């Protein structure tokens, strides 16, 4: 029986690869499919960017700290792993933008930077009178009529002018990609805005009509909406640990890197760094895109994936005694406009946003540095990064003394940039690969979404393709 099984290799043990391996084994059991799954990870741990530090009662995320609840696949993954009872929702509170040396509240009714309530927007100090009048032009402007892809910056500047883009939309939308809004692809990042303009003409009116209304749930601080994000009580790495525990014994290879891939008799032939040769009936490539490009370069394939640029970022978590940080304003954190002369790009007041992460009597701040065009700080020594971040934060909130400890994490050349034409670039790469390696599937953060639920969706989609190819 074992000799007749189909061998499927999942290359890469980040969240995409973990989901792919888990759901393929799940489908094999439920559908009684003769499949042998092998997950190969080059490093000595699974989870990729998901890394949780548990120290002195703190739960500190090195990489992503949460995921959108409205994207259901991560919650479903937790349920399938049996850890849905560990999910926690973020506490809501005022968020701010740092503009002109001051923290300004994000106006109530802003949906990803688009004002759906004109009263709070008109009262905001984020914008000048002329900037507010220019935004009102959205009520009268015709649809753009643009065909094909365009940058987010071009799209929003046409509808709203430059001021709201610089002071609100850019900090909100570019953060997850650490990208440049004037190069980011509208189609690949936020295609819903194009659809809203197409259907409703005015973005303001369209977003107002299409955004679900929140049910007021007072939390004691005046906030009237539920948190939109989930994490886990003991950190995001909980889902990595749960997934690894569920994978079948012997189905994970850590510390093994695929160094060469060939094809023979309809199979993919993988050579590992220890000299081992593996014959696979199908391969899910859940590595980063540069690794995929290099592996297939000897076959003249996937060279265009190198056009997907990356940028470097770092996270800086600082733990303090409660009385060392004086915060007069309520809230959960702030973003920094590009026009501000600061090295940090954002800061989360983690002890407020995620109360379960921080022991009583302590404060946890998490700052971010690095983005397109401003990456040199990521290469500095830890003590210098800490000094710069503390200097920036001390201009905004009162900090007395040094932190109890600091956790700095660098992600070098790691954040893929979805530039204009990204979808077409990815579609062309998949078509090119299919012509010579039809049994190899591409999935991961560089292709169809960088969020954790997006990566899980890609892993599950690759599993469906593999099953259709092998047993359809």
Automatic annotation (TrEMBL):
Q: Which reactions appear under catalytic activity for this entry?
A: coproporphyrinogen III + 3 O2 = coproporphyrin III + 3 H2O2
> Where, per UniProt, does this protein localize?
Cytoplasm
Q: Does the keyword Flavoprotein apply?
A: yes
- Domain of life, per UniProt, equals Bacteria
Q: Which cofactor does it need?
A: FAD
The entry's keywords: Cytoplasm, FAD, Flavoprotein, Heme biosynthesis, Oxidoreductase
Extract the Gene3D superfamilies matched here: FAD/NAD(P)-binding domain (3.50.50.60), protoporphyrinogen ix oxidase, domain 3 (1.10.3110.10), Protoporphyrinogen oxidase, mitochondrial, domain 2 (3.90.660.20)
What is this protein's function per UniProt?
Involved in coproporphyrin-dependent heme b biosynthesis. Catalyzes the oxidation of coproporphyrinogen III to coproporphyrin III.
| UniProt record similarity statement | Belongs to the protoporphyrinogen/coproporphyrinogen oxidase family. Coproporphyrinogen III oxidase subfamily.
Query: Matching NCBIfam families, A to Z?
Result: PRK11883.1-5 (NF008845), proto_IX_ox (TIGR00562)
Q: Mind telling me which PANTHER family this protein's record contains? A: PROTOPORPHYRINOGEN OXIDASE
Protein's UniProt name: Coproporphyrinogen III oxidase
Species of origin: Sporosarcina contaminans
């Amino acid at each position: 029986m074992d000799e007749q099984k189909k061998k499927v290799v999942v290359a890469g043990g980040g969240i995409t690869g973990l989901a792919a391996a888990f759901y393929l084994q799940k489908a094999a059991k439920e559908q009684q499919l003769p499949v042998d799954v092998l997950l190969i990870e080059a490093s000595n741990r699974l989870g990729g960017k998901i890394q949780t530090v548990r120290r002195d009662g703190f739960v500190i995320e090195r990489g992503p700290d949460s995921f959108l609840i409205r994207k259901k696949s991560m919650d479903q993954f937790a349920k399938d792993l049996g850890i849905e009872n560990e999910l926690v929702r973020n506490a809501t509170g005022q968020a701010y933008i740092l503009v002109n040396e001051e923290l300004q509240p994000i106006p109530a009714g802003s949906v990803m930077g688009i004002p759906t309530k004109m009263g709070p927007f008109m009262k905001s100090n984020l914008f000048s009178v002329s900037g507010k009048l220019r935004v009102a032009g959205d009520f009268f402007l015709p649809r753009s009529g643009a065909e094909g892809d365009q940058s987010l910056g071009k799209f929003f500047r046409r509808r709203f002018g430059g001021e709201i883009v610089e002071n609100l939309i850019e900090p909100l939308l570019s953060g997850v990609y650490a990208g440049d809004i004037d190069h980011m692809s509208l189609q690949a990042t936020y295609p819903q805005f194009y659809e809203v303009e197409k259907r409703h003409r005015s973005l303001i009116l369209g977003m107002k009509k299409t955004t679900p209304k929140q049910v007021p749930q007072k939390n004691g601080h005046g906030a009237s909406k539920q948190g939109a994000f989930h994490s886990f009580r003991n950190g995001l790495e909980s889902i990595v640990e749960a997934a690894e525990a569920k994978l079948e014994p012997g189905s994970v290879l850590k510390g093994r890197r695929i160094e060469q891939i060939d094809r023979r008799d309809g199979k993919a032939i993988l050579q590992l760094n220890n000299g081992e040769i593996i014959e696979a009936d199908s391969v899910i490539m859940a590595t980063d895109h540069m690794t995929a490009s290099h592996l297939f370069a000897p076959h003249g394939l996937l060279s265009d994936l190198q056009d997907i640029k990356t940028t470097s970022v770092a996270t800086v978590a600082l733990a303090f005694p409660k009385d060392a940080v004086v915060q007069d304003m309520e809230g959960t954190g702030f973003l920094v406009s590009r026009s501000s002369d600061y090295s940090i790009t954002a800061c989360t007041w983690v002890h407020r946003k995620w109360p379960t992460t921080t022991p009583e009597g302590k404060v946890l701040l998490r700052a971010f540095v690095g983005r397109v065009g401003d990456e040199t700080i990521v290469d500095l020594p830890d003590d210098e990064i800490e000094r710069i971040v503390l200097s920036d934060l001390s201009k905004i909130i009162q900090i007395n003394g040094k932190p109890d400890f600091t956790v700095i994490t660098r992600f070098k050349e790691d954040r893929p940039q979805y530039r204009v034409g990204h979808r077409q670039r990815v579609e062309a790469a998949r078509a090119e690969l299919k012509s010579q390696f039809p049994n190899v599937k591409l999935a991961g953060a560089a292709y169809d979404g960088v969020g954790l639920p997006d990566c899980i969706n890609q892993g599950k989609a690759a599993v469906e393709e593999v099953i259709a190819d092998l047993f359809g």
